[in-house]
Amino acid sequence: MQSGLARKSEANTDAGTELRHKLHVGIIMDGNGRWAARRRLPRVRGHEAGVDAIHRVVEAAPAQGIGTLTLYAFSSDNWRRPPAEVTALMGLLRSYLAREVDRLVRNGIHLTVIGRRDRLPDGIADAIGRAEAATAGGTALRLRIAVDYSARDAILRAAARVERPEELTREAFADLVTGEQALRDVDLVIRTSGEKRLSDFLLWESAYAELHFTERMWPDFGAEDLAEALSSFHRRERRFGGLQATESEPAAELAPSA
Question: Is the pTM of this model over 0.90?
Answer without folding.
Answer: no
